[in-house]
Amino acid sequence: MSLYVYLEPDREILAERGPEFQSVGGAIVHSMAELETHLPRYPETLLVLIGASVPLDEALMFTAYQRLQRPLIGVVLVRKQINPAEVIRCLQAGVRDVVEEADWDSVRQATSRSVDISKALSTSIRSGAEVAPFGRIVTVFAGKGGCGRSFVAVNLAVALWAGGARRVLIVDLDLQFGDVAIMLKLPPDRSIAGGIAMAGRLDEPGLRSIVTPYRPGVDALLAPGNPAQGEHVRRELVLEILDVARPHYDFIVIDTPAIVTDQVLAALDVSDWFIPIVTPDLPTLKTVRLTVEMFDMLEYPRDRSLLVFNRANTQVGLTTADVEEAIGMPFASLVPSSRDVPISVNQGEPLLLTEPLHPVSRAIRQLADRCAGTETAPEPKRGLFGRRKKVTR
Ligand SMILES: Nc1ncnc2c1ncn2[C@@H]1O[C@H](COP(=O)(O)OP(=O)(O)OP(=O)(O)O)[C@@H](O)[C@H]1O
Ligand SMILES: [Mg+2]
What we know:
By secondary structure, the chain is α/β, with parallel strands linked by helices. The protein folds into two domains: 4-129, Rossmann fold, CATH 3.40.50.2300; 132-372, P-loop containing nucleotide triphosphate hydrolases (Rossmann fold), CATH 3.40.50. Helices cover 43% and strands 15% of the residues. The chain is built from 15 helices and 13 strands. It has helices spanning 11-23, 32-41, 56-69, 84-93, 104-131, 149-161, 180-183, 204-210, 235-245, 262-269, 282-298, 320-327, 340-347, 351-354, 359-372, and strands at 4-7, 27-29, 47-50, 74-79, 97-100, 136-141, 168-172, 212-215, 218-221, 251-255, 273-278, 307-310, 331-335. An eight-stranded mixed β-sheet has the order 8-9-7-10-6-11-12-13, with helices on both faces. A five-stranded parallel β-sheet has the order 2-1-3-4-5, with helices on both faces. The longest helix is centred in the first third of the chain and has 28 residues, at 104-131. The protein starts with a strand and ends in a 21-residue tail after the last helix. Mean pLDDT is 86; it is low at 128-132 and 376-393.
């Protein structure tokens, strides 16, 4: 069992630093490719120490990806020299600490601090699951088609999954024209239609038999392959499915059709978070305004709504403030318009997985943080960079 791994392609540096690392049970890899194969084989790994000879961009790309894939792992970067601009870039990418190679004492301290943080995080994730055994239901909707509901729902589900830190179910309640299967490139063999015959007596194995696994920890309950079957999915069945699913997931994200159907109302009734999506055009704005008013009438709490402005940067003469004023609610997340979105949709690969640092991915992660209540999670403390005075200016 090895909690640490040290990537250093430079043989000379390795000859100097490697033995000490190995003496505390650390593993050594010589290339990024070797590191990529090492991590899945040693899932207990809590720390990756990236050596000074690895190019910074490569190290940061790895870190950003890792943060999603295995958020518990801390990355500590060794550099020949450090400067403030680089430290900021590293922090933004999610590196836990950057230390100078000449100061190997600091490397030791940084690695042990990072392992302590990972251990504390893993305990809090586990105990968090014990405290809140019931999954929170997040429903994404809009009063008009084509606003990006399915794109946001799918990527939000992946963001909430956080590389395996949480269990997530995505439910496609667009029973006639559901797109979740396409967006995740999943076979349409199993669907919510399989639940129709189990209505009234659905149990966990029954639910398992109709969901499609996507990644370890993410399942999808797809829309029926045959749109006609959608009519037989009653409101009661939707509630039953959510009831059976709740104890087994941390989050259930629901994608919806453009019209508020009976099934959608059922889901909204039991939702913890409402995610209305609005795009910068007047017809959409009008429908969202109406939806918000309908919500007020139904007495859904406003502080549970996280309004998303999708394609926020599109120039159509409406400012963010105009839109907020028109709806009477502030935005929780501004998702920019990008050509990479339709590309990711066509490829069936969530942008959040393929490009975790993309501005669109960042905006959706911010939304996920709001849902998970982690948006105020403390940034790595200054103390972590305790030796900041050594930063060269
Ligand atoms: N931020 C964005 N930037 C660029 N294109 C986007 C963005 N968001 C969504 N789109 C594109 O808009 C189209 C509609 O997106 P999506 O299918 O997610 O919307 P929807 O509201 O679920 O639509 P439908 O009514 O068909 O269910 C897709 O082609 C998608 O690629
Ligand atoms: Mg859709």
